[in-house]
TrEMBL record:
Top-rank taxon, per record: Bacteria
Keywords, ordered alphabetically: Ribonucleoprotein, Ribosomal protein, RNA-binding, rRNA-binding
Subunit-level organization: Part of the 50S ribosomal subunit. Contacts protein L20.
Protein name: Large ribosomal subunit protein bL21
HAMAP family: Ribosomal_bL21 (MF_01363)
Biological classification of the source: Bacteria, Pseudomonadati, Bacteroidota, Flavobacteriia, Flavobacteriales
InterPro entries: bL21-like, bL21-like_sf, Ribosomal_bL21, Ribosomal_bL21_CS
Protein function: This protein binds to 23S rRNA in the presence of protein L20.
NCBIfam families: L21
Molecular function terms from GO: rRNA binding; structural constituent of ribosome
GO biological process: translation
Species this chain originates from: Flavobacterium geliluteum
Amino acid sequence: MYAIVEIAGQQFKVSKDLKVYVNRLTNEEGSKISFDKVLLLDDNGSVTLGAPAIEGASVEAKVLQHLKGDKVIVFKKKRRKGYKKRNGHRQYLTQIVIEGITAAGGTKKAAAKKAVVAEEAATEEVEAPKAKKAAPKAKKEATKE
């Protein structure tokens, strides 16, 4: 079982007992968090899509530690101008471990709606775009010497 969940503005594919580094969260170390914005849920082949999120589904996690990521070097240069700037930063991260995925209330309504929309699109007749007429070619002038 896995889920695609939005955490701190980014989407992650998570499963049980997976350790994930996310952007810094405000929770304390050792505290438990619940993420309600589950976008997709796969339970042994039965996929549930959210529109945009699955109602009732959630992902429980525990904050392990707050840390800083590896240093990222930002180097700017303009050739032949003598312009060079070197800068860098270390991103603030939080390490979490996924404790469980609950799918209470998750249904396949979103997947059924997509199938109906796909069938309607297939039955509609689509006209081919009309071909544009080519511009007349310029005539070559005959020159006498």
